[in-house]
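Forwarding the complex inputs:
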Amino acid sequence: MSVTTKNAQSLGWKYPNVGGISTVGGVVTGWNDSLPELTQELVDSIEAEWTASEGHKEGRRKAYLSIPEQLDMQYWDSVNGTTKWRDAVALVKSENPK
Amino acid sequence: MSTVAVDTIETLAGDEHARLVQVVSTITGTVATGTTQIPWDDTPPLSSEGTEFMTRTITPTNTNNTLVIEVSVGFMDTVAINGGFALFKDSDASAIAGGYYHQSLYEECRCNFTHVITGSLGTSLITFKLRGGGDAAGTFTFNGYAGSTKWNQVEKSTLTISEIRV
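Prediction (whole assembly, two chains):
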């Protein structure tokens, strides 16, 4: 019976620097013998662990302004004594909580 | 996978305009991932490095002909990498062609390269394999984003081989 994943990046995240892990169309097609036995329960638990630890990061990545825009905000904050950049970053973090 | 086989294309007057013997290609939009790295150094990638994502076979009709191999693949990695794709022939250990990029964090890339083999082809079946990977710990994704398919697979990767009579 094949083991499937809805979040293949979680496997590489869980086992960094471990080669041999591969998937095709969401089915795990390669596994490294040095790792715990491949089971659906193991993959499901890794995905849940990834979501708890990393799930907020993608939302933040999309929400942050570009680096040039943030640098511009920081410049004008320094000129005007405002806190627009810090407020914008804080808003992204609060809207995408860990 | 599809095969288009043609003979000489001529005008009505019998002038030959092209010498395309056959075109074969592998086209896929299926997402796939791998974690085996390809080192970032000045040696050809090895067949034990990276992950195999595509293959295509062809049987040349004449040993003196030319093969034009065209690769176009979409990929990304979940960490910043120097990486890309390398082309291997049969069981050769070292890559014969490839394309590499520096990819920033969570950045989608398209890798395109062409390789030409002229003569000494033989007339036996040849298998070309495409392997991809980066030089850092992460998930290297072929045809997708962070291990997942996007755009319902309308973005595809292709490995096309044309045999040209010389």
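Residues 40-63 of chain A form the longest helix (24 residues).
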